[in-house]
Amino acid sequence: MGEKKQIVLSAIQPSGSMTLGNYLGAIKNWVAMQEEYFCFYALADLHTITVRQNPQEMRKNILDMYALLLACGVDPDKSVFFIQSHVTTHAQLAWLLNCYTQFGELSRMTQFKDKSKKHADNINAGLFTYPSLMAADILLYQADKVPVGADQMQHLELTRNIANRFNGLYGNVFKIPEGFVPKDGARVMSLQTPTSKMSKSDTNINGCVYVLDKPEVIIKKFKRAITDNDAEVRFDIENKPGISNLMTIYSAVTGLNTEQIEKEFAGKGYGDFKASVGEAVIEHLRPVQEKYQQIIKDRAYMEETWKKADAFAQNFSQRTLDKAMKKIGYIK
Ligand code: TRP
């Protein structure tokens, strides 16, 4: 018998469409981690209402994102892929943890500061306490490892502080999780402003590629990608951020390394290169798109899949919640 597998937890918000950046930077890593770890993956739909949502769109986003993650290779036979709002322990532990999290700590969160600027008309308490819900997501599952985007590392540090504080008062209740930014996850930049991260909120729609974009849209976006004035396909983030970004993407979808790519396109123009990257992305996404189309039509399959995962997550997380409540002084 081998050693017990380490536990991984991660989550993604179902707010809008998945970008190529989300896919290459995070989700491909989720899929890979399933082989080595016991993974809990959550659709963090409780988190999304910190920003106002349209109910119809929200329902669609949740279903789309669930189907798309299955299509990307999140495998319900290997991992527990559940919907956060279906598992009651998250909101419950989040409340408890709120009482072990300091106002000052939450005030220092850069995401809170950024989002309060962006949504100045709706700086709600949920936006402020969002990190303690995230801490609950993680601590409920006694996670060893938590892959996150670089922008979430501060929340991870806070989670560790909350867990240490709680354990300091009551003994070992929570595993102290280790957050990390997957190193082989590609950091994909905007095709129009290659010095900033590819994002749905890019002001230029050609900057951001979506996993479900049609092939003709994908190729168009790549053909319009910003490059530079010398005509050499060479990796140099400082001086050639556009070309370097395209190389990163090409590498992620073909498995070729930098040298191989430089060699392949030596003496060729940027036009050829951009078209080749676009084609390679289309080919890479084709099976994902096809699978998504099948799954999204099969609501019964989706429901059956999340119900199984929800029940497992509920049961597993309940043990941690019960323990924490008992330590605090609640009676059964
Ligand atoms: N806050 C994360 C994001 O916006 C999503 C998230 C919610 C998460 N709960 C989590 C990530 C727990 C890792 C672990 O990207």
Write the layout of secondary structure elements.
Blueprint (H helix, E strand, L loop, with lengths): L6 E6 L7 H14 L4 E6 L11 H18 L7 E4 L5 H10 L4 H5 L2 H9 L6 H15 L5 E3 L5 H18 L7 E3 L34 H9 L17 H14 L3 H7 L5 H28 L1 H30 L4
Parallel strand pairs: 1-2, 2-3, 4-5
Helix pairs in contact: 2-11, 3-6, 3-12, 6-7, 8-11, 9-11
Descriptive report:
This protein has 332 residues and is mainly α. It has 2 domains: 7-185 and 299-328, HUPs (Rossmann fold, 3-Layer(aba) Sandwich), CATH 3.40.50.620; 205-293, Tyrosyl-Transfer RNA Synthetase (Orthogonal Bundle), CATH 1.10.240.10. Helix content is 53%, strand content 7%. It is built from 12 helices and 5 strands. The strands form 2 sheets. The chain has a 3-stranded parallel beta sheet with strand order 1-2-3. The chain is globular. The model has no long low-confidence stretch (mean pLDDT 96). The protein binds tryptophan (TRP). Residues 9-13, 44, 47, 134, 137-138, 146, 148-149, 152 line the site of tryptophan. The site of tryptophan (TRP) has 14 residues, from strand 1 and helix 6.
Quick description:
The chain is mainly alpha-helical. 53% of the residues lie in helices and 7% in strands.
